[in-house]
Structures are given as C-alpha cells and as structure tokens.
Amino acid sequence: MSKTLTIVLMSGYQENEDALLAVGLARAALEAGHGVNMFLFGNAVNLANKEKPIEGRVRISERLKGHQDIGKIGPEIEELASMGAQIATCHTNEYGRGTEGEDYRDGVQWGDVGETFIRFLLTTNVLLSIGH
Amino acid sequence: MLLLINKTNPRLLERISLLAADQDPDVLLAGDGVFYASDFMVDKFRDIGVEEVYASKPCLASRQVKLSDKCQVVDYDQMVPLIMGEHEKTVCL
Asked: Residue B3: helix, strand or coil by DSSP?
C-alpha cells in the first residue's frame, strides 16, 4: 500500500552522512511508489539553495575537491523533486544563516514550521527525523 | 519500534533501555552507527531486548567493520519496508 513518508533533515551536507541517508531513503521510497515530503531544517537548509559560481582563483586541490564533492548532493535534491517529492525549507533557519531570499534549487519550496511543516504532517503516514 | 542509529554515543545502550527496551525494538545502523555492527555490540543490544539488528550496506562499504553474522545487511530499497510498513514508528537516536 502506498504511504507518505515525511523526512525532517536537520544536518547539512558537509557535516555528516545524514543528508546522504535522507536522499537515499527518499529515492528508494519514491521508487517503491510511496510519496515523500522532505523538510529541511537547521543546517539542512543549505541544501535548498543553488550554488554560486566561484569567482576568481579556485584554491581547493583536485584531490580535496573530489572528497568534498561526495557530499554535495544538491543536484539529487532537484532529482527527488522531479520524481515527485515535496521539498521545503524552514525560512527562519535560513534567516539565521543569512541565506533567506537566495535562489532555491529547482523544485525546492519556501517553507515554515507553522504552515508548511504542519501541512506535511497532516498528509503523512510516517515521520522520520534525521539529525545529530 | 525501529531505532535508527546514525551516530556513536557512549550512553547508547542506556538510551535504548530507557526509550524502548520494553518494546523489543529492532535497530537499523547507518552512518557511523554501523561501527556497532560487531559481535560484541550486537550481543549487548540483544542483552537489553533488541531483536533484529540491520546495518546499512552503503555505510558499511565506506568503513572497515568486522561485521557480525547476526546482523542483516540492507540497502536503501530494503530499509523502505522496514520504515514504511514493518514498524509502527522509527526513532532516530
């Protein structure tokens, strides 16, 4: 039977593997025919925004860049949205990190706890919070 | 109840006992949590009432863990039914 999973992700994508776990679970749930909501909270709001091109010299080595790129899963967030996942941020957490108002990745929606998250909860069967 | 353990914690067994020992929980190890997939820790889990212990295949792949044969290795597609159907709730510890 198809159900809806809401994942509250509270970790950013360079601090641990929580974002990789959330994306892997979300994709598998979608592929199994379930609905997925993902609410980006805390440092996870940094998954919501488009990356800005680096101006000037790029100082990171190719080897270190390869290591860092493992955790850069922003494009996978867009892919999940294109597969039907509802993905929203908490704008208060964005404000606290100085990113409110920046461009979102395709498929990511502005959100808040009082309305967006409540809407997710009202339409979900399974709630899973992932954080450290 | 399914306990998703995604990090190490020196008081983990105490937390499980407080939260879920009377519910015969299952455990899903992911992230650094897969370091608990050893014989020693699986026996500790069993001692406090944990039934099944699952460990994330992708997280094991990036770590050198001496995996207990009492652990079931699961990929994301096998985690989904554990979370969506086989357990009433999943709690991340």
From this structure: strand
DSSP class of residue A8?
A: E
Cα nearest neighbour of B84 on chain A: A126
**pTM for the full model?**
0.93
State pLDDT tens for residues B41-93. Answer: 999 999 999 999 999 999 999 898 999 999 999 999 999 999 999 999 999 99
Query: What span, in angstroms and rounded, lies between the C-alpha atoms of B78 and A54?
Result: 39
Q: Say if CB A11 and CB A44 are below 8 A apart.
A: yes
Shortest Cα distance from B31 to chain A (angstroms)?
Answer: 6
Structure ipTM over 0.95, yes or no: no
**Cβ neighbours of B81 in A, within 8 Å:** 32
Asked if the C-beta of B8 comes within 8 angstroms of chain A's C-beta atoms, the answer is no
Three-state secondary structure of B15-31: HHHHHHHHHCCEEEECH
- The residues, ordered by sequence, that sit 6+ positions from A41 with a Cβ below 8 Å of its Cβ are A8, A9, A10, A89, A90, A93
- Specify the 3-state DSSP secondary structure of A3: coil
